[in-house]
Amino acid sequence: MTFQRVISPFGLLFVGISSVIGSGWLFGSLYAAQIAGPAALLSWVIGGILMIIIALTFAELGSAFPVAGGMIQFAQYSQGPLVGFLMGWMIWVSSVAVAPVETLGLVQYTANYLPGLMKKVEGTTVLTTLGIGVSAIIMLIMCILNYYGALFFSRSNSLITAIKLIVPLLTIVLLLGKHFSIHPFHATASGGFLPFGWHGVFAALPLGGVIYSFIGSNTVLQLAAETKNPQRSIPFALIGSMIFCTVLYALLQMAFVGASSPDSFAAGWNKLHFVGDTGPFSGIMTMLGLGWFVMIVYADALISPFGTGYVFTASTARIGYGLSEIGFFPAALKKLNTRGVPARSIALNYCVGIVLFLPFPGWQKLVSFIISCFIVSYIIGPIALVGLRKTHPTQHRPFRLPYANTIALLALYICNLLIFWTGWQTVYRMMITLCIGLICFALYCYREKNNLWLSQWRTSWWVIPYFISLTVISYLGTFGGGINKIPFGVDFAVIAILTVIIFFFASGRRSGSRDLQVLIID
Questions:
Q1: Residue 120 in 3-state DSSP?
Q2: 364 pLDDT exceeds 70?
Q3: pLDDT tens-digit profile of 415-446?
Q4: Alpha carbon 122 to its chain's center
Q5: Distance from C-alpha of 158 to C-alpha of 15, rounded to nearest angstrom
Q6: Backbone angles phi, psi at 477, to 5 degrees
Q7: End-to-end alpha-carbon separation of the chain, Å?
Q8: Where are the alpha helices (DSSP H) in 37-69?
């Protein structure tokens, strides 16, 4: 059984948009404003531009090599098994957590009417036992719907996306049209437009849910093997979804800040609060006397996260398939059902997702961990772009990125900055996850009784000093618990030096696998 190419270009575009417009629109504006104040607007614009630059590298890779679980296989065939496994491991860990975090966002809004689903523990909103059970049922529904194949998925997701876009668009029109004030953007008593400086603007990217909202577009790559005309569809869907969602999120942030009552941020934007802020947009609508629209927001609070979780249930199953395809996950996960769906991979991801509800206390903390893992995996875009141009120079590239080396270097620099901005408290947890991956790779080599570890060391040695350096710089930095030995501003130069060094060694690899061509489905 093979994958069926049934997803149209616009169907793939809706996949990208649906992945991006999830719980991020429901919570991101509040959390970003608490970290950056009115300048959170800049965070969304900057975040969108940065992610578009990274997406450009994947647009060429996806159009030239449209394979299932693309991000994993790009790493495998440009850098070899060691880097392939580590990147695949991080992609899988982060992707498998998206459906639970979207479900958590859905349940958190629902808890305003059914308070038994969540409770406050030391100021943090967490799931109750009943909430975990309800969340498990919601995720099970996502899995069941995915069982019916790519065509059903594409059509149902397009419908869900169209419905869930209506509410944020109406929210923008309603707040900007009748309840917008310029006062919150320059209120001197609260610090003006940049109350926390540029440090706050950049900190909001990972910690305010900005980057989390944009990372969903990678689902386009995971579904490449089931897309009609992938050479054209993938760049169109990747870049198109990013541009559309950047504009949408920036307008939502502008509307949120402009509609905020002076009382809500009188004590400072970092203490921004109002009645019902556990569901920020529903709370602000209630505060403005727009009770008739609150029910609509609550309805979308069910649809938007569900739609994103639904898409990630599909894409994460293809990631498990990709890891199985290159031998790192059990071969059983490659088996497709009669509808061309990796059902066993879906079942595994579901079980892991349920476990993730237990150790993570709330939406924001789980989001920051997911971001760091995702961005680590994104470094393979710029590195594989340069590497595969060297090892597969004759491969047809319908979308050929101009100034590829320069843009790839810039994209890698952006990835490193985004990892750094998540802060020390998140980076060290991410590094623990990476170490677990290294142990798993060593066990894999022992099981297979081959010398992959030794043979790959000469070409992949840069991975170890790279991650160690990132960890040390994060510890010495000013974000998320760092000890402030590298001042803000100087850290940009330090990250730039690390980026140039790593790019030189990583992109210089020329021994890429000749087997990638076998995996490309015309």
A1: strand
A2: no
A3: 999 888 888 888 888 888 888 888 877 777 77
A4: 28
A5: 7
A6: -85, -165
A7: 16
A8: 40-64
Looking at residue 216, the DSSP 8-state letter turns out to be G
d(CA 320, CA 384): 20
User: Measuring CA to CA, which residue among 481, 474, 466 is closest to residue 412?
Assistant: 466
- The residues, ordered by sequence, that sit 6+ positions from 147 with a Cβ below 8 Å of its Cβ are 337, 339, 341, 343, 346
Return the structure tokens found at 48: 């969108």
SS3 sequence, 190-211?
Answer: HCCCCCCHHHHHHHHHHHCCHH
Report the distance separating Cα 362 and Cα 104, nearest Å. Answer: 8
Is the whole-model pTM more than 0.85?
A: no
pLDDT in tens, 91-121: 888 778 888 888 887 887 788 778 888 777 7
Q: Which residues of 99-133 are buried (b: 16+ CB within 10 A; e: fewer)?
A: bbbbbbbbbbbbbbeeeebbeeeeeebbbeeebee
The alpha carbon of residue 99 and the mean position of all alpha carbons in its chain are separated, in whole angstroms, by 11
| All structural domains of the chain | 9-369 (1.20.1740.10)
Beta partners for 47? none
Contact between 286 and 275 under an 8 Å Cβ cutoff? The reply is yes
What distance in Å separates the CA atoms of residue 372 and residue 425, rounded to the nearest whole number? 11
State residue 405 phi and psi, 5-degree precision. Answer: -65, -45
